[in-house]
User: What shape does this take?
Amino acid sequence: DIQMTQSPSSLSASIGDRVTITCRARLSIASSLNWYQQTLGKAPKLLIYAASTLQSGVPSRFSGSGSGTDFNFTIDSLQREDFATYYCQQSYSSPNTFGQGTRVEIK
Amino acid sequence: DVQLVESGGGLVQPGGSLRLSCAASGISVGDNYMSWVRQAPGEGLETVSIFYSGGYEFFADSVKGRFTMSRDESTNTLYLQMNSLRAADTAVYYCARGGREEPFDYWGQGTQVVVS
Assistant: This one.
């Protein structure tokens, strides 16, 4: 299994802040990296796929970058509805493993 | 609009069985990679199984030999048969489109399974 490691595991930020989350794969996964948002009690929602492609309907303040083993996920100008847990996930090989999640909290 | 609606969760004793259903609309479960992803209480996400009717099936090591997947084309429903359930299988189970090389782009609302 390809282990995915996210950092930080949690962070506190204010409305309007720029937030960046890092995801590292144990081996190269090319650009097969997706990002999800999960709010309490809800199913995850796909935000970014193929490392940097914004899913339809997702606001442009969300972005992703990277390839190989190192990836970044950024939220420009954090909004109230963005306080949630974010997961990276590789779709390079089965099982499609997830990072452990990054909880974004209000400062 | 795509909708995935899970059902079949509940409370079961260790060693028992449950069958989860995922009723799909707006997509065909026979034409897509379909997966079950679970989330234990307070934990992260784990891909449990992936199914493609064209000839691909995957199960996590933790459920291999105990869980099976099937589909009913007539009702456009995906099933997860879970046998020999353990406390460690306690989780919310989500049905999702995607898996293998595809992102999980559509998710159901989840169904709770408690093994106790």
Summary: Chain A touches chain B through 23 residues (CB under 8 Å).
